[in-house]
Amino acid sequence: MKNTVAVFALSSFFVFTACKKPETTNKSMKTETLTVQKFVVDSVTVDDSIKLGDSLSLGFSSKLLVFPTLKDKKLLDSIYFNHKGIKDFSKQGLKTFLEKDRNDYFASVKNDSKDWLSTINFAQKWYTSSDINLKSNYNDYMHIEYLGSSYEGGAHDNYGFSERVFDLKNNKKVELKDITSIPKKKIEQLLMKNINKMNSGTTDENGTVNNSEMLLVDVIPATENFYFDEKNLYFHYSPYEIAAFAAGDIVIPVSWEDLKGTLNPQFKERMKIK
C-alpha cells in the first residue's frame, strides 16, 4: 500500500515640525496590532486489545485529528463523516468518543462470538483500525486521507481509502463541480486513458503489471474520492472498487491541461493554475 502571530508594527508616527521650534503633540502614538489565528493540528489515538479465548484476540486502533481552531460545526461534521455522532470536537471529547467506539466494538464481537468461538482451533487476531491523516493544506485547501482496515477471518484483511479536500475559506467540503465543469463521460474517458500513469506496484513473474490488466470494470467512475495538487487532480480507488484485490489501491491522475477550458475560474485563480 502503497500524509504570527503576524504582528504588523504599523507604528505610524507623524512628526510635526514648526519653523522656529519643534513642538511635541500631546497625542500618544498609536500602534495597530493585527492578529492572525494560526492553523493548529493535534491528534488523539486509542489503541487497545483483549483476548476472547485461547485462540482469538481482538485489536482496536483509531486515530483522529484535532482541529482546535476550526469552529464551524457543519465543517467539522463533514471532516469526521466516518465517525457519526461526535458532539464534542475538543481533544478530550474526541478521545472519549473513541473509547466508547472501542468498548462497543469489543462488546459486539464478544456477544456475537458466543455461537462460534469454540470452533476457532488456531490462533487468530481480529482487528479494526481507522486513521485520519492530514496530507496537505495549500491555499486553504485542506486534504485529509482516511484509511480503514479490518480482519475478521478469511484469506486476508480488507482496507479502503477515502480522500476529502476541505475549503477552509468557505467552511465546506470541495466537490468536483467546484473544480471543473467537464462532463462526467469525458472524465471517465480521461481516467481510462491515464489508468497506467501511476501503477500500483503490482508485479508477477514477468515484472510490472499494468493497472489496466487488472481492471474489473469497463468504465472507471469519476467519484468524489479525489484530491489535487499544483499539477493534477487525482482519483483514488480502493481494492475491489475497479480492480482485483491484488492490484491494491489505484490512483489515477488527470492533469490540469487535460481539464483546460473547464476549470472553475475562482478555483483556477486560487490554485494559480496557468
Describe the structure.
It is built from 4 helices and 11 strands. A hairpin with a 2-residue loop joins β3 and β4. The chain is of the alpha+beta class and 274 residues long. The strands form 3 sheets. The protein has a 6-stranded mixed beta sheet with strand order 1-2-3-4-5-6.
Short overview:
The protein is an alpha+beta fold and 274 residues long. It contains four helices and eleven strands.
- Provide the gyration radius in Å: 26 Å
User: What composes the largest sheet?
Assistant: 6 strands, mixed
Order of helices and strands: EEHHEEEEHEEEEEH
- The chain-level structural class is alpha+beta
Number of strands: 11
Strand order of the largest sheet: 1-2-3-4-5-6
Average residue-wise pLDDT:
88
Oligomeric composition of the shown chains = single chain
Helix content: 10-25%
| Overall 3D shape | flat
Beta content comes to 25-35%
Give the termini distance in whole angstroms: 33 Å
Output the number of helix runs: 4
Task: List unreliable stretches of 5+ residues.
Answer: 1-33
